[in-house]
Specification:
single chain, alpha+beta, five-stranded mixed β-sheet
Length: 183
């Protein structure tokens, strides 16, 4: 029996698309300072106490409505919000040194596994913004290693989460999903 040409072409096309996506991500992550991809300008993260000291995991009131991912720059926390504006999961994250401006974004690309700008193998990459040529998105280190210090010279928009939280993000935040970034 002869091998299926359609299956072979499909496999080659999938491999080519994965390679192009990976190379595009690597290029955007290593673009020199001063290039702009149309994303929001970078903002400095501040350090402030959680919004509600008695309930630090409570969904912030200024986070929009409907199904969405809410990311708080000040609290380094994410909420996955489903039907009825109910947060069904919340967790802490460790951001890189490039941050999106507060606003509403959509998930524009995803990668099952790549190498992060810090050289660590990462998985479940969910990208939603670009700041001066740097892709911004959520990801988990394959070895669950913490994010590198954000004061280094490598510009990174990676927002590191645990593998378990990365699995939940991957399942929830598909292409086109809303991401609301708040202070």
């Amino acid at each position: 029996m002869a091998p299926s040409n359609a299956g072979f072409v499909t496999a080659l096309t999938a491999a080519a698309l994965a390679t192009v996506g990976f190379l595009a991500y690597q290029a955007s992550a290593s673009a020199p300072t001063g290039t702009h991809t149309g994303g929001a300008p970078a903002v400095a993260a501040s350090s402030k106490a959680p919004r509600d000291d008695r309930h630090p995991d409570a969904l912030p009131p200024d986070s929009g409505t409907g199904n969405r991912v809410v990311y708080s720059l000040d609290d380094n926390r994410v909420w996955l919000v489903g039907p009825g504006d109910k947060a069904f999961r919340t967790f802490e994250v460790a951001p890189g040194n490039i941050h999106p401006a507060p606003g509403t974004y959509t998930v524009t690309s995803r990668s099952g596994s790549v190498t992060g700008t810090d050289g660590a193998p990462i998985e479940h990459v969910v990208r939603f913004a670009g700041v001066d040529g740097v892709a911004v998105g959520f990801s988990a280190a394959v070895d669950d290693a913490p994010a590198p210090a954000s004061t280094g010279t490598v510009r990174t928009g990676g927002i590191r989460e645990s593998r378990a939280d990365g699995d939940a993000m991957w399942d929830f935040a598909t292409i086109g999903a809303r991401v609301v970034v708040i202070r």
